[in-house]
Every structure is written in C-alpha cells, then in structure tokens.
Amino acid sequence: MAEHNEIGKIGENITRTFLMKHGFTVSETNYRTKYGEIDIIARKDNKLRFIEVKSIKVKDVAERGNLTIKPEDNLTKEKWSKVVVSIEIYLQNRGVPRETRWQIDLACVYINTEIREGRVYLLENIHKE
Predict the structure, then answer these.
(1) Strand, coil or helix: 1
(2) What's the DSSP call for residue 114?
(3) Are 111 and 118 in contact (CB under 8 A)?
(4) Cα 7 to Cα 55: distance, rounded to the nearest angstrom
(5) C-alpha dihedral over 94, 97, 99, 104, to 10 degrees?
(6) CATH class of segment(s) 3-123
(7) Average pLDDT in the 95-116 region?
(8) Which residue of 2, 9, 38, 50 has the lowest C-beta tally within 10 Å?
(9) Residue 42: helix, strand or coil by DSSP?
C-alpha cells in the first residue's frame, strides 16, 4: 500500500476513535459509490453526519499552525463534488427521510508516525463554494 493510502487509513481509524469519544455513533465507514466515497457516516445530536477525513504526516502535531499545507487544503472542489454526489446517493439508497437533518464535517488529522501520535481537529458543518 502506498504511504499516502496508509496515512489515510490511519487517519480514518484515529478519527473513528475520536468521534466515539465525543459522543458520535459511527454507523458506516468507506461507503463507496461509482462517483466517490464517504469516509465515515455517524450520528450525533439527532443529526446524520458525513465526515470526510483528510490526514497528513507531520513531525510535531503541536506545530499545525506553522504548516504550509494543511489537511483541509486537500479537499479540492473535485473531491467535494464527489462527496456531495455520494451523499445524495446514500440518502436515496438508504431511504433516509427528506426531513432528516444532516451535515458534512471535515476531520483534519495530523499524524506523527515516529511516535505514533495523531490529533484530530473537527471542522463541523462545512460548506464549499
């Protein structure tokens, strides 16, 4: 497996643990459509949450403010479009009632593989123009 794929999987695992510690109920992971994938589907506060996970490898997770490239920079317009279409397919295929409240969250994960530490910053209810 390529290193960036491995970092992505580690980031998803760290995020799942983070979400559960913060009162989320994770119902599905890696929901695939022919257009893209939803990394994590969870519920919290009576709302369906679609969580996109973006992870990067860092030397020090505390230095996130000084980085030139951050995980959220990897959520391109193309990737955003794929996520939105995949959510629409999920809602339809799972028969989710139209009145169900939902949102898209972005989990930014900073991973130091040397000391096996990761930190999640959750950006809630994001919108992309």
Answers:
(1) coil
(2) T
(3) yes
(4) 7
(5) 0
(6) alpha beta
(7) 92
(8) 2
(9) strand
Using pLDDT thresholds of 50, 70 and 90, give the confidence band for residue 12.
Answer: very high
Q: How many residues does the chain have?
A: 129
* The pLDDT of residue 129 is above 60: no
- Give dist(CA 48, CA 103) in Å, integer: 7
Handedness of CA 66, 71, 75, 76 (dihedral sign): positive
Q: How far is CA 20 from CA 4, 24, 70, 79, in A?
A: 24, 5, 24, 25
Alpha helices by DSSP H, listed for the chain, are 3-21, 77-93
CA distance 92 to 86: 10
Q: Which two tokens stand for residue 58?
A: 């860092």
**In one letter, which amino acid is 83?**
V
CA distance 107 to 84: 16
